[in-house]
Structures are given as structure tokens and as C-alpha cells.
Input
Amino acid sequence: MRLTGPHILPVAMFRGTFAWSFVYVSLPFHIRAMGPLDATATLTWMGRAVAGA
Output
């Protein structure tokens, strides 16, 4: 299947949104493992950052 013209943009946007949905879910836990703060403070900070974005 070859996508050209007006079909490429919606497909690309769907793929990008689908991929980032996994990043947003797992990112706080990766940062918690690397962060210098305790788990509660790190997840609170990350939750506020993601909610503000």
C-alpha cells in the first residue's frame, strides 16, 4: 500500500500520536528510577509537568 497526497498526513499523525501515548505512560517511571528525589516527589513533579503540557 503506497500512501501519497492527502492520505500521508493523517497516517503520520496517527502513528506519532500512537507512539507518544506509550511514552507519556512510561516516562514518569523511567524518571523516577533516574531521579535524585524520592519516588513521591519525583512522580508528583512529573505528573504536574505532563498535565501542564
